What does this fold into?
Amino acid sequence: MTDIERLRDIVDRSHRIVFFGGAGVSTESGLKDFRSEDGLYREKYVYPPEYMLSRDCFYRHTEEFFRFYRDKILVGGVKPNAAHYKLAEWEQLGKLIAVVTQNIDGLHQAAGSRAVYELHGSVLKNRCTECGHRYDVEFIKNSEGIPRCIKCGGVVKPEVVLYGENLDEDTVAGAVRAISAADTLIVAGTSLTVYPAAGLINYFTGENLVVINREPVPASGALFICGKVGETLGKIK
Ligand code: NAD
It folds into this structure.
């Protein structure tokens, strides 16, 4: 049996799949990940990307934060790929109970997925730090310098979890519930190095752990498929 046939067989037998993904799920849509050879961490900035996306940078160097954020994170014209669409299809078929993602790009919802736990928030949601008024992503894209609230003049902050900030408790609780209830966990496109998110896969006690990644990652006891996640899932009916 080839790895693809084994994955097909696992998917056929599963009724409660949970997909746990990272930045590698969206590289086939044209978004850079962080740690690959061509990832954002290999580019040169005044401060390293971890700092540019930190709480400290947001409050101390707000203008630089937004320059980096608009240039590198809010990349326009990006569409879901075969991985996003396949997961949405499995949810519709009643095979998949949830997507747990470290991504902040909103592409799972754009593909039609509904049960999505966004551990690191979403670029699509933004809020005034003073009055809480909500803004869409276009507001941030179209603003210049520091985006200011039209109601009170406060700084508008993306609802993404910056380095140095805590994950949302309800989102984590929902993700843990889903992973604990899964019969199959597919971990894909993640280096499994960003904690606490990466630790959530330890709640899995089901039958089949599948890892799909372009390079080896620290998850054991798995069917490991070394390849692209969109290409791989695209081959499964
Ligand atoms: P990471 O950059 O640390 O690791 C990505 C992994 O995916 C690497 O192991 C890489 O080899 C693999 N990969 C890349 N493209 C792939 C593909 N097409 N198929 C299979 N594997 C592929 O990403 P991470 O583990 O998600 O951690 C980075 C953090 O950065 C996350 O917390 C996430 O919030 C954030 N991030 C998000 C986006 C996004 O929303 N699209 C993009 C970059 C970073």
Notes: Residues 1-30+80-120+166-237 form a domain with the Rossmann fold fold (CATH 3.40.50.1220). The CA atoms of residues 82 and 228 lie 11 Å apart. The chain has a mean pLDDT of 94. Residues 22-24, 26-28, 31, 33-36, 39, 102-105, 120, 189-191, 193-194, 212-215, 217, 228-230 surround nicotinamide-adenine-dinucleotide (CB under 6 Å).
